[in-house]
Amino acid sequence: MQRHLLRRRALLASAGLAAAAPALAACGPDIASEEDAGASSLLKAPDRTEGEITVWDRSGDLFEVFEGVIADFNAKYPGIKVNHVAVDIDAKLQNTLITGADVPDGVFLDDAKVGGFTDYLWDLSDVLAPYAADIAQQKLDVNTVGGGVYGVPFDLDPGLLFYNAAALEAAGIDVAAISTYDDLLQAARDYKAAVPGAAPIHLEQSAFLGQLQLEMYASQLGTSIADADGNLRLDTPEFERILTFLDTVRQEGLGTRAEYLTPTDIAELDNGNQVFYPWAIWFSFAPQQVLTETSGDWRATQLPAWDAGGARSGAMGGSSFVLPKDGPNADLAWLFYEFLMFDEAGYAAVWGPGEVYPEGLATSIPSYTPAADPAKPLYAEITALGGQDLWTVATEAGAQIPGGTPTPAWWTGAVDYLGNNVQRMLDGDMTPQEVLAQSTEDIQTNLVDRQ
User: Fold this and answer.
1) Which has the higher per-residue pLDDT, 13 or 281?
2) Terminal-residue alpha carbon distance, the chain
3) pLDDT, tens digit, for every residue of 204-257?
4) Which has the closest alpha carbon to 327: 87, 27, 39, 91?
5) What is the residue-wise DSSP string for 45-60?
6) pTM over 0.70
7) What is the spatial distance between Cα 438 and Cα 301, in angstroms, rounded to a whole number?
8) CA of 227: how far to CAs of 214, 222, 223, 234, in Å?
9) E-strand spans in 192-239?
10) How far apart are CA 210 and CA 203, in angstroms?
11) pLDDT of 39
12) How buried is 386 (Cβ within 10 angstroms: 0-12 exposed, 13-18 middle, 19+ buried)?
């Protein structure tokens, strides 16, 4: 069970794990006015509360969490039957939309894939309007394409600096003194001096996850691989600065090179050699369910800033709910997602203590800011983090995430170039400047220009 949950957290919570499917034209049920093409894309709130909906999720922990909320939903909407189906969405969604057969009313989808399906989804601008001012800007931005909003934002995944508090205290390292990435480098040097053979900072060895983490760092600096119009903006001082930091970690022997939570990674976390992990909040899964020797020793704090006073967090991954136009009861599915995300009874049931996560869903925070109130925690202190109040740390970090842009459909394809070239840099075979120049040329020629 733990192995299954680990795979899910590594491959699902990170968001954007496969290329977004091509946008496909379609017509849908007569939910919105058909006066013009723009109006026909806008979902309207239903004037009925009876019917049957089919919603797709992936199997695993989050499926079980959402399954557990259906009874709460039916307490408010007893006339809506929810068929909650576990589906391999990556394998099935595109063909389902193409054929128009058995199209679900709602789908749980990685943020990175929303932009590739927008021609086939309802524009949710109208139904989200009452809540938009209170949704994290980054989540609205990644779901906005051509002025329409195509996903109901689910989680916010702020980047945090996880650290082995027990090991650092034994080495005399004061984590409170780490406010910038230069400070992190010095802390790593000091730890390595105290613990010879240690490689304190995690260096991601997966090309995909390494690129995702790169976007987290870039998010702190208010940038990303592509701008709001999908134009490539990789060869920039911001990305050079990030890669130079990573290359410095490599050159000085300050990094443990391993894939996220593979056996090697876990071993180096548990033996005290790897003590700093800059990652999304969903790393909290590791001390809760994976680490054996050091569970209870780990804590979380805000990421270092690139400059003093700069943003102390960036977004790393995320998912939303989308409503296909051909879903026969997509308007009723909106009521389900509205309940989950914007009704206190719904979001408290999602993130609060439950059967799947007895201490609460502490691998993310809500993207709806009234639900992510630091003063009103939805989950308790986390035992595996030494009883730390992760809720306060995460919500304060989430509030610092700059706005974002829609993830381009070619993002995952870019891993063949940027993600792999970053790994070549960590092998010592490329410089940061070479990574940026070569990746920009290859992505532009092989991906962007071929859209």
Assistant:
1) 281
2) 41
3) 999 999 999 999 999 999 999 999 888 999 999 999 999 999 999 999 999 999
4) 27
5) --S---EEEEEEE-SS
6) yes
7) 35
8) 15, 11, 8, 10
9) 201-204
10) 8
11) 52
12) middle
